[in-house]
Design a protein that fits this description.
The chain is an alpha+beta fold. It has helices spanning about 10-20, 35-40, 55, 100-110, 125-140, 190-200, 220-230, 235-250, 260-270, 335-340, and strands spanning about 85-100, 145-160, 160-175, 285-305, 310-325, 345-360, 365-370, 375, 380-385, 390-395, 400, 405-415, 415-425, 425-430, 435, 440-445, 450-460, 470-475, 480-490, 495, 500, 505-515.
Length: about 525
């Protein structure tokens, strides 16, 4: 074990973020928010879409555009005056954490196995590292994920027709295989207890049973004492309790994670000192999955009357599936990452969107369908080397699940709107057992040169990320418009590298022309 070193999780996290950023991706549940205006309004713009945004949001709105005989009393947003629109740049970026992957990555990212060799546990920092690693391995599960990305696109509307270009996708990572068997250190069990006792003495820690334990339960104390099996076991358990108390006070380990930390620490102690089950044999791994797509849509809307219109979008989609798997305690991960970045599978498919829009004075209602034919893109398999042995990684197919959304808008006068959208279906993502079903609310106030927008949305399919607050500004000067949008989760944060981040955050920018 003297020459063994594990891959840092921080480079892996950086690689996932970098790969997403340079590949023009959209984040985990952001595929429904294809425009900056919609992003500022919580995604709730299916019944109040205007301009070239209709190509991706609701093509039925195209039917009401450029209609010379339109009744202004019903034309709540004056869509009949929209002859030509070009949203020539729409870019955005987002990151989403679920669970507590950020803090676990931080703990595992600093693994240095020389901290756990004979003689090194006499150092207080190494004891803290050992407990934090046990906390990460003991509490990780496949609901701890990270997704990052960005998007880019352009759309154009000419009369009742629309077209454009959009690059989007998803990239994410999660724990694929958590190995709680191979946890042992290259120390005999009695050496672990002795070194922990010496670490406490070097720190001026009281021994001889004078310390009052405050974190460990009686059962946990008994389990650790039995596992350590040494005359120094009592002092060692005292010291573990003290270090746990410090880590909990610092927020490095949450109170609810103590039980999993102690269980894993006990397994580590019991697996130490033999010839098998060492950490260097641990098979814990992170899986990364990604999908990039380029869409070229052609949209058409037809209005049967001033009140009712339908629309259809046919999309040519060029998709690329990629993925990787990285083993936490493998010394060949650099080559695996490089091979994965070079490997992918590209294929093409067609997508169908359809929509309806009904309006009466001051009110509008929408029903939209996205990816109604479930476009599918082929996965692939890849062989990698893990600690000298070949392992096959299976990257599955990617399917864009269909989504049906109902929306409503109250427009008491042309310069003000309150909107709402509701997804009727749950749609899957690249992440294991993570689905998306949004409830969204939005508002817009047009002050002529400046537009103010606010909104919020909630993914009803998952409880981990709460309500997300959105907002943005629009600037208009003659035909030129510039829109900004941002979103941030408001109910919880995730810690990484000592900094608290919102669980999800997004920024978007678009520049366009309307005539």
């Amino acid at each position: 074990m003297n020459n063994f070193s594990a891959v840092s999780y921080k480079p892996l996290l950086f690689t996932l973020m970098l790969y997403a950023s340079v590949s023009c991706l959209a984040a985990i549940d952001d595929l429904a928010i294809a425009t900056t205006r919609g992003g500022a309004m919580g995604g709730a713009d299916s019944a109040a879409v205007i301009g070239a945004d209709a190509v991706y949001i609701n093509p039925a709105a195209l039917g009401f555009m450029n209609r010379s005989n339109s009744n202004n009393r019903v034309d709540n947003q004056l869509l009949s005056e929209q002859d030509f629109g070009w949203n020539f740049m729409n870019v955005g970026s987002e990151a989403t954490f679920t669970g507590d992957l950020g803090s676990y990555l931080e703990a595992l990212g600093g693994i240095n196995f020389r901290k756990f060799e004979r003689g090194t546990l006499r150092n207080v920092d190494n004891v803290r590292s050992l407990i934090r690693v046990a906390g990460a391995l003991g509490n990780l599960n496949d609901t701890d994920t990270i997704v990052v990305g960005s998007s880019v696109g352009t759309t154009m509307q000419i009369g009742h027709f629309g077209t454009g270009f959009r690059a989007y996708g998803q990239v994410g990572g999660w724990i694929n295989n958590l190995d709680l068997v191979n946890l042992g250190l290259d120390l005999a069990v009695n050496e672990i207890a002795d070194e922990l006792q010496q670490a406490g003495l070097a720190e001026g820690f009281p021994g001889g049973g004078t310390y009052i334990r405050s974190i460990l339960t009686p059962d946990q104390q008994a389990a650790l004492t039995s596992a350590l099996s040494s005359v120094a076991a009592s002092d060692a358990v005292d010291y573990i309790d003290a270090k746990l108390q410090q880590l909990v006070a610092e927020g490095k380990i949450k109170p609810g994670e103590v039980a999993g930390t102690v269980d894993t620490l006990k397994q580590t102690i019991e697996a130490s000192g033999g010839v098998n089950n060492y950490l260097r044999q641990n098979n814990t791994s992170i899986t990364g999955r990604g999908f990039i797509a380029v869409e070229i849509p052609i949209s058409y809307g037809y209005a049967f009357s001033d009140n009712f219109s339908v629309g259809l979008t046919a999309k040519a989609i060029f998709g690329q599936v990629f993925g990787t798997q990285v083993w936490a305690f493998n010394d060949d991960n650099e080559n695996i990452l490089q091979d994965s970045l070079d490997s992918s599978h590209a294929s093409a498919a067609f997508g169908i969107d359809a929509a309806m829009l009904y309006r009466i004075p001051n009110f509008q209602f929408a029903l939209t369908g996205q990816n109604l034919n479930s476009p599918r893109f082929s996965g692939y398999s890849q062989q990698v080397i893990v600690n000298g042995s070949p392992v096959e990684i299976m990257v599955p197919d990617v399917t864009l699940d269909p989504q049906l959304t109902v929306g409503g808008a109250w427009i008491p006068f042309r310069r003000f709107a309150l909107t709402t959208d509701y997804d009727l279906l749950e749609t899957g993502t690249l992440l294991k057992e993570f689905n998306v079903q949004r409830l969204s609310f939005g508002s817009e106030l047009d002050l002529s040169l400046i537009l103010l927008r606010l909104g919020a949305y909630k993914n009803l399919a998952e409880s981990d990320v709460g309500w997300v607050l959105t907002g943005g500004l629009g600037f208009q000067a003659w035909a030129l418009s510039v829109d900004l949008a941002a979103a941030v989760s408001i109910e919880d944060t995730v810690e990484y590298d000592g900094i608290n981040y919102p669980r999800t955050a997004m920024v978007q920018l678009s520049i366009g022309l309307d005539f």
